[in-house]
Amino acid sequence: MRPLPEPALESLTLASVLYALGDPVRLELVRRTYADPGRTCAVEDLGVPKSTLTSHWRILREAGVVRMAVDGRYRRIWLRTDELRERFPELLDVILRLCAEDSPHGALT
Amino acid sequence: MRPLPEPALESLTLASVLYALGDPVRLELVRRTYADPGRTCAVEDLGVPKSTLTSHWRILREAGVVRMAVDGRYRRIWLRTDELRERFPELLDVILRLCAEDSPHGALT
């Protein structure tokens, strides 16, 4: 697998991580990726065009929230869970918990 | 004082609150408002044009993060701290803590 470029942990900012998470589709992608590490970037059931989805994944990757790697025809995705926990203690876990309670798509996975 | 319109607590969404907080200037405004409730909307030292600042305050108000009221020539601002804590437990406190550690303007207030 060929990893895609990603920002170094120390260059992540709180504002850019919050911005990346500040969208209902991206929050749902984060929730699903946490639940299913290494999943592909394909998402069929959110009613989002593929180009929009690609843009959402890119925003998450460039903010340092997810890691992506090319695996043949697919891109595989992981949350940078441990790194985010180190850089922004408690943030990811609080948001994942609220997201599970709040998400209109919470029952879809 | 005349309060400006604000969204009801139950209509707030996690994504819109995170979006509102996902900007370094808005994070700094939130940090200062938490430290100085009822402050005016004037901010001289962030190098942000007044029209941009007005837009940042509006985004924070429309997302339900701050409450604003017209007080003569000024607008006064409060964080909706208790309501945010009720609607999104732990979120605001984690972000305020990280923001204090992370903000490049952390020493300005």
UniProtKB/TrEMBL annotation, chains A, B:
Membrane-spanning segments: none
Domain HTH arsR-type per the UniProt entry, residue ranges: 16-93
A Pfam family matched in the record: HTH_20
Gene3D superfamilies attached to this UniProt entry: Winged helix-like DNA-binding domain superfamily/Winged helix DNA-binding domain (1.10.10.10)
InterPro entries in the record: ArsR-like_HTH, HTH_ArsR_DNA-bd_dom, WH-like_DNA-bd_sf, WH_DNA-bd_sf
Official protein name in the record: ArsR/SmtB family transcription factor
Organism: Streptomyces nogalater
